[in-house]
From TrEMBL:
Source species of the chain: Sandarakinorhabdus cyanobacteriorum
Pfam families on file: tRNA-synt_1b
Chain's gene name: tyrS
Family named by the database record: Belongs to the class-I aminoacyl-tRNA synthetase family. TyrS type 1 subfamily.
Protein name: Tyrosine--tRNA ligase
Enzyme Commission number(s): 6.1.1.1
């Protein structure tokens, strides 16, 4: 459909929209004046990861289109654990761990959003402010009656766990009720009328729009993004080394840049639209590059995506490290490092740099000729490497052994 609001036009053109509860009404509301929308993020680790980036970029586009974003930190819901997309219950964290994770995560959002007291400045709020104040009997009496167990059992977050005969605790089952109550509380406090999230959150989001309609008699909307997959069918952000963290404390700048540089040719245009601020006409030009020239587009993607998340200086430094390492055969200053007091075997070096998850995996890399020391194939598992030497795994992963 043709959208009249700048906000939905942006999202549609860049591939963010999967489902909307009432697209025409939301479009009209966004065209009429500033709206307030939120996305919730649980605090299960010190950093968010690439899988959260689509939602963060939606909040960025919301603000750029003249609307107000709310970032809800799940200080309360983290104590419960979202069952969506999970095969088992999350490990529960204590209050101190949650607070520390929340403080660390905030630094990520400060790079993507403008916070302040203005009408379109972003707001960050902890849902523990209201969830921990709820009393069970009054809560069930006032709000529990609006939720149908029959309907809740049909939502993917519950249905899939039950179909696989995997345990689903009563604690997790209540997650969707508390998420719906979050939306109601934000509607009351901030006039929030839109919740956004991934496609796996559709059932939870619809619960919230229904609760606002039933309790307050007001219209509210939900919008979800499609599941982002790579050209090979794998889920976006899944790598052999694990999660791609947004925080530099969990993943060095160069590794983050290199993740984007390694994008499949067929994904370059899609990822430029989703994960950068580049104009669409420039993205179309880059997407049309063919043959070896597509590597230019990949480098632009890596630099622009890294600049948003880590800062322009970090992105340019990572790009220069890549140029030095790959184009000139040198060893850039921003490569991953592993500090050792004395020379170690190539097996230990590969594991220490994160290029192999186990000794068996490292031995296999050596046997296949994929492990190199200063550009020369490691001849055996017992080959030694010391401070000042570069270790490579395949053509695209490089690191330095340093004294420590």
């Amino acid at each position: 459909m043709t959208h009249s609001s700048d906000f939905l036009r942006r999202l549609d053109a860049r591939g963010f929209i999967h489902q909307i509860t009432d697209a025409a009404a939301l479009d009209a509301a966004a065209a009429k004046g500033p709206i307030t929308a939120y996305v919730g993020f649980d605090c299960t680790a010190p950093s968010l990861h690439i899988g959260n980036l689509v939602s963060i970029m939606m909040l960025r586009h919301l603000q750029q289109a003249g609307h107000r974003p709310i970032v809800v930190m799940g200080g309360g819901t983290t104590k419960i654990g979202d069952p969506s997309g999970k095969d088992e219950a999350r490990q529960l964290l204590d209050d101190e761990q949650i607070r520390a994770n929340m403080a660390s995560i905030r630094r990520i959002f400060e790079r993507f959003l403008r916070f302040g007291d203005g009408p379109t400045d972003a707001v960050m709020i902890n849902n523990d402010e209201w969830l921990s104040q709820l009393q069970l009997v009054p809560f069930l009496r006032d709000y529990g009656r609006h939720f149908s167990i029959n309907r809740m059992l049909t939502f993917d977050s519950v249905r899939l766990r039950l179909e696989r005969e995997q345990p689903l605790s009563f604690l997790e089952f209540n997650y969707m009720i508390f998420q719906a109550y979050d939306y109601l509380e934000l509607n009351r406090r901030f006039g929030c009328t839109l919740q956004m999230g991934g496609s796996d959150q559709w059932g939870n989001i619809v619960n919230g729009t229904d609760l606002i309609r039933r309790v307050e008699g007001r219209e509210a909307f939900g919008l979800t993004t499609p599941l982002i997959t790579r050209a090979d069918g794998a889920k976006m952000g899944k790598t052999a080394k694990g999660a791609v963290w947004l925080h530099e404390d969990q993943l060095p700048h160069f590794d983050y840049w290199q993740f984007w540089r390694n994008t499949h040719d067929a994904d370059v245009g899609k990822f430029l639209r989703l994960f950068t601020d580049l104009p669409l006409d420039e993205i179309a030009r880059l997407e049309a590059l063919a043959g070896a020239e597509i590597n230019t587009a990949k480098a632009v993607l890596a630099t622009e995506a890294t600049a948003l998340c880590r800062g322009r200086d970090a992105a340019l430094a990572a790009a220069e490290t890549a140029r030095t390492t790959f184009a000139e055969g040198g060893a850039g200053e921003d490569l991953p490092t592993h500090a050792v007091p004395a020379p170690i075997t190539i097996i230990d070096a590969l594991i220490g740099l994160g290029f192999a998850a186990s000794k068996n995996e490292a031995r296999k890399l050596v046997a296949q000729g994929g492990a190199r020391i200063d550009g020369v194939a490691a001849g055996s598992d017992t080959a030694m490497v010391g401070p000042g030497q570069k270790v490579s795994a395949g053509k695209k992963r490089h690191g330095m052994i340093v004294a420590g």
